[in-house]
Amino acid sequence: MNSQQVKQAFQAAGIKVRVADLGLKFRVCTLGDVAFDRAAAATVAASIGLTDVLASLGGQFNQAHELIGYKPGAVRLA
User: Fold this and answer.
1) Are 46 and 56 contacting, i.e. CB atoms less than 8 angstroms apart?
2) How does pLDDT run across 44-64, given as a tens digit for each residue?
3) CB of 20 closer than 8 Å to CB of 50
4) Which residues contact 38 (CB under 8 A, 6 or more apart)?
5) Which of these, 3, 10, 44, 52, could form a disulfide with 15 (CB 3.0-4.6 Å)?
6) Which helix (H) or strand (E) holds 12?
7) Counting beta carbons within 10 angstroms of the beta carbon of residue 76, is it exposed (0 to 12), middle (13 to 18) or buried (19 or more)?
8) For all residues of the chain together, what is the average pLDDT?
9) Residue whose C-alpha is closest to residue 15's, from 2, 33, 4, 31
10) How many CA atoms lie less than 13 Å away from 13 in the CB half-sphere?
11) Where are the domains of the chain?
């Protein structure tokens, strides 16, 4: 999975974003610092396998316009 694929998934849901690949995770931000519709963004992130730091599908919101999603398999619970 790469940043372009993540961007395309969000665009297909009507959410305009920019995406940075940070190694084991993606930083997804809305364009213009507009707040995410958290439910819609989490649904998109879960549909492509992104997780939060506790391996729950969907991702983690750090700010209203920023979502961090770990790549599938990057977070494993012991």
Assistant:
1) no
2) 999 999 999 999 999 999 999
3) no
4) 61
5) 10
6) helix 3-12
7) exposed
8) 95
9) 31
10) 21
11) 3-70
